[in-house]
Amino acid sequence: LRALKFDRLIDYSLFALLSMLSVCTKDQAYGLIVLPTVLLAYRCWRSNHKRKVLKLLIPAVIGLLTFVFIHNILFDFAAFEDHFNSLGKSGYTPTDFTHESTVYYQRYLYLVSRFFRDINFNLGWPLSIVSLTAIATALLRKNKQHLLLSLLVPCLSYYVFFLSFIMYSRDRFVIPICLIFCVFCGHYLGELLDTVKQAYKAKLVVWMTVISLLVYSFFYGNSVNALMMTDSRYFVETWMSNNIDINATVGFVEKKRNHPRFQGLAKQTITVREVSSETLKAVVDKQQFSYLITSSGYTANRFPKDHKQYKGFEKLSDGSVYKLIFCHRTTPLWSLLKIDEPSPVEYYDPRRKTGNLNKINPEICMYEKR
């Protein structure tokens, strides 16, 4: 914004430096800066400054040198090459999902709806509505505030050059866009308060609305903290340390991040091992463990009912070999979040994975060998 407004070398240079630092910190940040870089280059070229070539060249060199030094390309090119190659393997390439035009359009429509759902999940309904109203107002007003509207350029850039490219959206992916939406939201509310400052009753109503909005949003955002502080895994962890016999063996069904910590059991020399969902049925039949633990973060709900892995969970829960001692999920102090559980649709289409927060406060089920 400063570079657009003042057309100064220092601002162009700082944009190049800080943008490249962000890209070198988190690769996907490149999506945010593609179109803003073009816009700033155009802004600089259209200026009447005598040294506009230098004003273009110096930031470009700063950005390039930052990239080269941060990635240590001069002294360890092999590591950079490995990092670059790993980026292509870490996600789903668009070609995997676009071999048929009808499939492509279906997936693209899903991407658009998921993109707005993720924004809504991050901000909550009140802030989402105000933000979209603010953006619509800024676009439709006669006297355009071009500097404010330029904030939509990195949003568009991120969507086109990152999300549309990988055809995938998640709650954490859209956080940069949410931050920009909040600027529109704050600007809109500030203008709204200015327009009613002479009318006492209207001012009071607007202030109360704004305060209610912010209070709700505070508790909405802090629902994550409330979930974390009362996470079910703390309860299960304590229960295991107090109730499991020293000679017992404990198996937990994929993935370790979905389960309680087992350090307490390890100190008691209790054997703890991970069990693959693929081999779960065989493990149950052989009665290999004294206890088996499942977590809603990774259980039968992830698989279709005719799937091999589903059969393992079904065998575990039928009560013939292992009996269910308890299923526990803590009720937090408050939670305004609606968190989707994993579902079989993710098995058929990995891009339909739900957000990260379903890893918090999972339902833990404890089974004991009969």
How would you portray this structure in words?
- The protein is of the alpha/beta class and about 375 residues long.
- The protein is built from 17 helices and five strands.
- The chain has helices at about 1-5, 10-25, 30-45, 50-70, 75-90, 100-125, 125-140, 145-150, 150-165, 175-195, 200-220, 225-230, 230-245, 265, 280-285, 310-315, 345-350; strands at about 250-255, 270-275, 290-295, 320-330, 365-370.
- Strands 2-1-3-5-4 form a five-stranded mixed beta sheet.
- Strand 1 (about 250-255), helix 14 and strand 2 (about 270-275) form a beta-alpha-beta unit.
- Helix 7 (about 125-140) crosses helix 10.
- The model has no long low-confidence stretch (mean pLDDT about 90).
Outline the fold blueprint:
Blueprint: H1 2-6, H2 9-25, H3 30-46, H4 52-70, H5 77-90, H6 101-123, H7 125-140, H8 146-149, H9 152-166, H10 175-195, H11 200-221, H12 223-229, H13 232-243, E1 249-253, H14 263-267, E2 271-275, H15 280-286, E3 291-295, H16 308-317, E4 322-328, H17 344-348, E5 364-369
Parallel strand pairs: 1-2, 1-3
Antiparallel strand pairs: 3-5, 4-5
Helix pairs in contact: 2-3, 2-4, 3-9, 6-7, 7-10, 15-16
In total, the number of strands is: 5
- Strand order in space, largest sheet: 2-1-3-5-4
The helicity comes to 55-70%
Which regions are unreliable across 5 or more consecutive residues at pLDDT < 50?
none
* DSSP helical segment count: 17
Beta-sheet strand percentage?
Answer: 5-15%
Structural class: alpha/beta
How would the global form be characterised?
Answer: globular
From the N-terminal CA to the C-terminal CA, the straight-line distance is 67 Å
Question: What is the typical, i.e. mean, pLDDT?
Answer: 89
User: How many strands, which pairing sense, and closed or not: the largest β-sheet?
Assistant: 5 strands, mixed
Strand/helix succession: HHHHHHHHHHHHHEHEHEHEHE
Instruction: Please state the CA-atom Rg, rounded to the nearest Å.
Output: 26 Å
